[in-house]
Amino acid sequence: MKRALITGATSGIGMQMALYLHRNGWELVLSGRNEKVLRRMADKFGRNTKYIALDLADRDAPEKLYQFCQGMQIDFLINNAGFGVFGEFTETSLETELELLDVNVRAVHILTKLFLRDFVKRDRGIILNVASSAGFLSGPLLSSYYASKNYVVRLTTAIREELRRKGSNVQIGALCPGPVDTNFNNRAGVTFSAKPITPRYAAIYGIEGSFEGKGLMIPTLGMKLAVIASKFVPEEIAVRFVYELQKRKEIS
Ligand SMILES: NC(=O)c1ccc[n+]([C@@H]2O[C@H](COP(=O)([O-])OP(=O)(O)OC[C@H]3O[C@@H](n4cnc5c(N)ncnc54)[C@H](OP(=O)(O)O)[C@@H]3O)[C@@H](O)[C@H]2O)c1
Predict the structure, then answer these.
(1) Catalytic: 113?
(2) Contact 210/173 with Cβ under 8 angstroms?
(3) Fewer CB within a 10 Å sphere, N or C end of the chain?
(4) 168: Cβ contacts below 8 Å, ≥ 6 apart
């Protein structure tokens, strides 16, 4: 029996990943802040499901989560928890943005390092970091969110190359979707400017892609083409386009 740890399992993409892995016979360790939802999921999935409620913005939370998993062999780490903050950089809350950096960057960094060391020793294991297509661009009006996802994409790609050069059997990849229909927009305080995909589709795409050893996983053809096109456009032009796109997300 194989076991996966999923952060942000209480909603959206993370919850769909949990459902999919459970249906495919995986045992799960679920994490998020909402203990009620975690308990409900564990009750539904059965005795072998473990859960721990914690706020990944708390200083010691990533290490606490790692400690919680000691004694259970984790084969698949999914760093999925994350959120966005919308608004002009001078207007947005510094406190909320520092929390964003703690969850989207610091926790992903710490958990990736701690579990990767174990995986490398065993020469087995998979890490899936849920980044975003925002990870390939600068994002005015969602600046800290885009910057945080750039960090996740770059970190993941660099580690992947180190593993490849060692001939390691450990896999690492990043899921980089465009808009997904989850609670993300409510929390960020925005609406959709493009048609979203379902969280189930994003979840299965990321998990199956990880099993196939894929690196950067962009779920739709439209978003794949947009990411490729952005490479051929000067940064100062691309950023203007992203501003217009983000502006349309504003809830008036
Ligand atoms: N939706 C999109 O359009 C989209 C597109 C690209 C990438 N993504 C990425 O996909 C990932 C999942 O987001 P989603 O779209 O599924 O949104 P969601 O429905 O809001 O789910 C976010 C998950 O992250 C957890 N989380 C948030 N803050 C946390 C904290 N401080 N500590 C611990 N857990 C925390 C939430 O759990 P609790 O509330 O229980 O804490 C929840 O389970 C994120 O990394 C997001 O950046 C989303």
Answers:
(1) no
(2) yes
(3) C
(4) 120, 123
Sign of the Cα pseudo-torsion (172, 4, 121, 108, in order): positive
Digit-coded pLDDT (tens) for 74-133 = 999 999 999 999 999 999 999 999 999 999 999 999 999 999 999 999 999 999 999 999
- Catalytic residue chosen out of the listed positions 66, 145, 146, 151: 145
pLDDT at 252: 63
Pocket of ligand 1 (CB under 6 A): 8-14, 32-34, 55-57, 80-83, 103, 130, 132, 177, 179-180, 182-184, 187, 199
* Count of domains for the chain: 1
- Asked, for residue 208, whether it belongs to a domain, the answer is yes
Q: Is residue 252 assigned to a domain?
A: no
Q: What is the position in ligand 1's atom list of the atom closest to the CA of 133?
A: 6
Identify the CA nearest to 184 among candidates 132, 141, 233: 132
pTM: 0.97
- Domain of residue 214 covers 3-247
Q: Could you tell me the CATH number of the domain that includes residue 228?
A: 3.40.50.720
